[in-house]
Specification:
Layout: H1 5-17, H2 23-36, H3 41-56, E1 59-69, H4 97-109, E2 114-118, H5 123-126, H6 128-136, H7 142-155, E3 159-163, H8 169-175, E4 181-183, H9 208-220, E5 225-231, H10 237-254, E6 257-264, H11 281-295, E7 301-302, H12 312-316, E8 322-326, H13 343-352, E9 356-359, H14 365-370, H15 377-385
Amino acid sequence: MAPSRAELLERIRKAVDAEPLTYADAVAIAERLEHDAASILEPLLEAGRELGERGHGRVITVSRNVFIPLTNLCRNRCSYCTFAVQPDSPAARTYVLEEVRETARGARRAGCLEALFCLGDKPEVAYRGYRGWLQERGYASTSEYLVDACRVAYDEGTFPHTNAGIMSAEELAALRPFNASMGLMLETTSRRLRERGQAHYWAPDKEPATRLRMTREAGELRIPFTSGILIGIGETPAERVDTLEAIRDLHAAGGHVQEVIVQNFHPKPDTLMADVPQPSDALMAGTVALARLVLGPAMNLQAPPNLSPTSLELLVRSGLNDWGGVSPLTIDFINPEAPWPELDDLRRRTEAAGYELRERLCVYPEYITGRPEMFDPEMLRRLRDASDPEGYARPAHGDPE
């Protein structure tokens, strides 16, 4: 029998005051959010907010970045994605190294220190023409090319943060000297979503076991790492909890998951999931609060502000402590229909909700000040030069005002 509302509220309170949620309680809360969010949302938000403030005070961070979509070719075809295109599309593009250099220089002029590299998974496996393009330039794979692209951006004074899909431990190790941090959205541990008719059927790199393996190996290599959950792509409430707990356990083993993103599915025209409704504001905020209860007060918890532009105040109450990367220069190439907020408006709304907005680098302050083993000496020196004694971005490098 499902717990009553009163029983759930008691367990939520205990999760703040005394003991972590059990798996069964977390699933019961997730199911209540799915089917009757109004009955539980306010107490859940209050619990998430209290735990978030216990870990981070009344500070919410943001990273001023530039987005570099190195290539939008990809061997996967997720049912909700418009980033990936076919090679014969007029929108197909792969940056040459000089374009990377000019983008990084523009980022520095605008006070951006994070160079966010996003690209498709292993397009050379699927597309002969692109494979030839790499070979003409002396590269056997996209990951080899990516190393040089990150080196260029790093040499120009930015800190690369790479989301390149699935990579081997050897590929991660090759990127590590030129990346302050890396990431891979776990999205879901649901193997069911790889079945015919589901969101990840045509996406071999969305195999949960493969994504779990790469996240674990990033910890073994001492790479500050981003993970996250994508809600609204057909997963069940129990599968959301499974995903959050998997991330928690990976961090417990590796000590390297520096942030967890709770991201809401955003429907896009001309995709197989164009008519699937976006998760409600209540479900989104409630899931952030549930993530805070599962992951604990210390984890950095993020929700993208451009995907919930009308409910930032609700999200502030959910226990998050980060807005992620926001670019004054480039669009969100993954969600081009969702413009970034202006940084001054984000500051105004954050402060109006009673929190301070502070700028961070792509690496969180506590890693810069207290985790020197996570970086090569030169990377650590540069990070500390670019940060204040608390580990936040120095005002000289751009303050979000």
